[in-house]
Amino acid sequence: MTTDALDSEARISAMVRRFYELALSDDLLGPMFRAEIADFEEHFTIVDDFWSHALLGTDRYQRGTAYSHHVHLKVEEAHFTRWLAAFEQAAEEMLPPELAEKALKRARHMTQSFRYGLLPLGQPHGVQPA
C-alpha cells in the first residue's frame, strides 16, 4: 500500500471516529446508537471498511448493502438531519477536501435513499384517509 493510500485510510478511520464522537454526544442519535451497537471497536472497523470501499475502491467491505443493516431502525426525519450534520462536520474536519467532497456526495445520496426506504410516505395532498 502506498504512503498516500495509508494516509487516506488513516484519515478515513479518524473521520469515522470523529463522526461517532459527534453522534454519541447528540441527544437523539446517541441513545439510538448505544442501543444498537454492542461493540463500538468492532463497529468502527466495519464502518472503516465501508468508507474505504466507497472512497478508495478497496474490497474490504464484504457485508452487502449498508441499507440492509439499517432497515430495522425506527427513525424519523430528525435522525437523518442530525446524522448528516455530524457526518458533514466529521468529513470536513478529518478528510482532505477532495476526499471530503466524495464522502459528502456519497453520504447525501445515502441519506436520501435511506429516507425513501425507512420513512413512511406522506399522505397525498388533498386525499383523506379511508
Integer count of domains: 1
Helix content: 55-70%
What general outline do the C-alpha atoms trace?
globular
What's the level 1 CATH class? Mainly Alpha
| CATH fold descriptor | Globin-like
The number of helical segments is 5
Number of strands: 0
Low-pLDDT residue spans: 123-127
**CATH H-level homologous superfamily name:** Globins
Mean pLDDT reading: 85
- Assign the structural class, choosing from mainly alpha, mainly beta, alpha/beta, alpha+beta, or little secondary structure: mainly alpha
Instruction: Work out the strand percent.
Output: under 5%
Label the CATH architecture. Orthogonal Bundle
End-to-end separation: 61 Å
Radius of gyration: 16 Å
How can the largest sheet be summarized?
Answer: none
What is the chain-wise order of helices and strands?
Answer: HHHHH
Keywords: Heme, Iron, Metal-binding, Transport
Organism: Alteraurantiacibacter aquimixticola
InterPro entries: Globin-like_sf, Globin/Proto, Hemoglobin_trunc
Binding site for heme: 43
